[in-house]
Amino acid sequence: LIDLESTKEDWWQTDAPSQIKTIAQHYGIFNDLYGDAYFYPVIPLHVKYDIDETTVATINRGNLLKPTEVKSQPRVNYNAEPDTLWTLLLTTPDGNLTSKELEYCHWFIGNIPGNDIAKGDLLVDYMMPIPPKGIGYCRYVFVLYKQDQKIDFSEYRKEGRCLELKQRDWNTKEFYKKYQDVITPAGLAFYQADWDFSVQEFYHKDL
């Protein structure tokens, strides 16, 4: 019998970073977030959404999901030593309503000790995807950065649920340029979503 966990671990230690990089390039992730730059995702980033009590959606590399399936904050896990610091960002390069050059930041947690997401600095609260109707699939990208030191991210902090979309305007390239000496992109996962009625409901009730 084949030990699937062992096989997966071997894949992560050998081919995974290169293959995930290639997939991300195919989907235009690096080009739209970092311009000419790219990175090898060497840290396995596990993202799971609890759709209901019995159904879980696992984020891989470009799988298709509906906004109604990813309305709630996901569970995120990765292997890290407790004395290390990390930043987790979820952004979309698609569907910004005011500028094609900007993203929306859907979630931002900095200074995460090890892999304890709950103990990180919540800077921008989680917001469900809101792909505009009629434009097709939008990409939603999780990037995990390893920090060399604790960082003051207070300029990015948004209060409460931050439902003013303009406040969620984001530019990954500028963010990384500012902090490239003290952060290193290390993990990557992304999915695609298109409009459904939960987006309309979110606009009417929340935005």
Automatic annotation (TrEMBL):
Location relative to the cell: Mitochondrion
A Gene Ontology cellular-component term: mitochondrial large ribosomal subunit
Keywords recorded for this protein, A-Z: Coiled coil, Mitochondrion, Ribonucleoprotein, Ribosomal protein, Transit peptide
Regions crossing the membrane: none
Entry annotated with the keyword Cell inner membrane: no
SUPFAM superfamilies for this protein: PEBP-like
InterPro entries: PEBP, PEBP-like_sf, PEBP_euk
One Pfam family this sequence matches: PBP
Keyword Transferase: no
Residues in the signal sequence: none
Gene3D superfamilies assigned: PEBP-like
Family membership noted in the UniProt record: Belongs to the phosphatidylethanolamine-binding protein family. Mitochondrion-specific ribosomal protein mL38 subfamily.
Protein's name in the database: Large ribosomal subunit protein mL38
The organism's taxonomic lineage, starting at the top: Eukaryota, Metazoa, Ecdysozoa, Arthropoda, Hexapoda
